[in-house]
Write a structure and sequence with these properties.
By secondary structure, this protein is α/β, with parallel strands linked by helices. The chain is built from twelve helices and 23 strands. Strand 4 and strand 5 form a beta hairpin. The structure holds shikimate-3-phosphate. Shikimate-3-phosphate binds next to helix 5.
Length: 437
């Protein structure tokens, strides 16, 4: 059911301290990689967004026992993993579920079918089908799109040079490689994509090494058995991004965001905000379950400047680009975002949709083949007039970007399809209401 919400003119300053919602990428992996331990583990700070719940339901169907001790604590018992599913495995809106589960399932002795919603059924799956097939996987698809039908294959390790930096591709291959007694599996990528899979596999004592070679980023794994251990998921910097950027652009805001995951493969936004001269400070760094974490203090930043964003940093902030585009409208001068062509393959075509929706607010934004050119403020005030109605295109990050744009608009704005926010950030509105009190 389509849910619309309406923002009510300029937001009051955001003030106070909040805890970052749990990380989506790590929550998926905690269940998927946790199930490979074939043991019993407790996962704390698990994200109960719709995407991760899709992964959870699929693993239950495959024979894992999964129970909640409280809202964000899960006990996974994988001793019966994996049994042939009795029904189609539905991944909902979640590309991570489909791509990682394909890597896991192609090593099993049974047939399984992975399906998804309208958005997921349009997303490219060739990027995993091709390399997994080179390993010997038997995957049938609808012209390289979902549904994917996976049947028993005989896998062998390969070295695969991925043309794109994609954590989902890398993870699918590593999950298959880990279950393959025949040979080693190596993935090489042109830039380092998020490395939660590698870090979590190390945490569970898998046989895995990372390296750099000829300017490429590599990882090699072998058939390994994993040690069951309790795991703590860190906070999601991609969710915190909406609060960080809202605090930077809403007058007189001052917010401390606690327990943000600070894995360097995810912190491109912090680097960019520092470069743009935002008022941002990282505090209390720590290491939790082999992942860096810390707090961030962020204050209203009226003197930000546009900058160029491209190259190696793109995979480190890929999911933050819709909200960075909004940030750029509030900085002085021009911001250029390039080398981000894969934005077209996310939950929506994020180049076309971000351009279309931010233009409705009056933003001076031009989509390009691989990013955006955004003209920010020219000295004075760049806040929006409002009275705008935006669409979400089945994409949580477009819905949340529309909402933050509404907070810097004078008149009310309507955001349609707000239910998509549930995929990654179920208490989004509560957090913003609490910070405004
Ligand atoms: C993810 C990887 C990224 C990211 C997605 C989550 C993951 O995609 O955009 O939201 O959890 O592995 P890529 O596979 O393109 O890196």
């Amino acid at each position: 059911m389509c849910r619309s919400i309406v923002t009510q003119g300029f937001s009051a300053p955001l003030k106070g301290e909040i805890l970052t919602p749990p990380d989506k990428s790590m929550s998926h992996r905690s269940l998927i990689i946790g199930s490979l331990t074939k043991g019993k583990i407790k996962i704390s700070n698990f994200l109960t967004g719709a995407d991760c719940l899709a992964t959870l339901e699929i693993l239950k169907e495959l024979g894992c026992e999964i129970n909640f001790l409280d809202k964000n604590t899960v006990v996974l018992n994988a001793k019966n993993a994996y049994m042939a599913p009795k029904k189609e495995l539905y991944c909902g809106n979640s590309g991570t579920t489909m791509r990682l589960m394909t890597g896991l399932l192609c090593a099993q002795n049974f047939k399984s079918t992975l399906s998804g919603d309208v958005s997921l059924s349009k997303r490219p799956m060739k990027r995993i089908i091709e390399p997994l097939s080179l390993m010997g996987a038997n995957i049938k698809s609808n012209d390289n799109k979902a549904p994917l039908v996976i049947e028993r294959g005989k896998l062998k390790g390969i070295e695969y040079k991925s043309p794109i930096a994609s954590a989902q591709v890398k993870s699918a291959l590593l999950l298959a490689g880990l279950q393959t007694p025949d040979g080693t599996t190596t993935v090489l990528e042109p830039h380092l994509s998020r490395n939660h899979t590698e870090k979590m596999l190390q945490f569970f004592d898998a046989d895995i090494e990372t390296f750099t070679k000829d300017g490429l980023f590599g990882v090699t794994t072998r058939h390994s058995s994993l040690t069951p251990k309790d795991l703590n998921v860190t906070g999601d910097i991609s969710s915190a991004a909406f609060i960080m950027i809202a605090a930077a652009i809403i007058k007189n805001s001052d917010v401390i965001i606690k327990n943000i995951g600070l894995n360097p493969t995810r912190t491109g936004l912090i680097d960019v905000m520092k470069r743009m001269k935002a008022n941002i400070e990282v505090l209390n760094c720590d290491l939790v379950s082999n992942e860096e974490t810390g707090d961030i203090r962020i204050k209203y930043s009226p003197d930000m400047e546009g900058c160029e964003i491209g190259g190696d940093i793109i995979p480190r902030l890929i999911d933050e680009i819709p909200i960075i585009a909004l940030l750029a409208t509030q900085a002085k001068g021009v911001t250029v975002i390039k080398d981000a062509r894969d934005l077209k393959n996310k939950e929506s075509d994020r180049i076309a949709c971000v351009e279309r929706e931010l233009r409705k607010f009056g933003a001076k934004i031009q989509g390009t083949d691989d990013g955006f050119i955004i003209e920010g403020k020219n000295g004075g005030n760049a806040l929006f007039e409002g009275n705008t109605e935006v669409e979400s295109y089945h994409d949580h990050r477009i819905a949340m970007t529309g909402y933050i744009a509404g907070l810097i608009s004078e008149k009310p704005c309507k955001i349609n399809g707000f239910e998509w926010v549930e995929t990654s950030f179920p208490n989004f509105l509560n957090i913003f209401e609490n910070l405004r009190k």
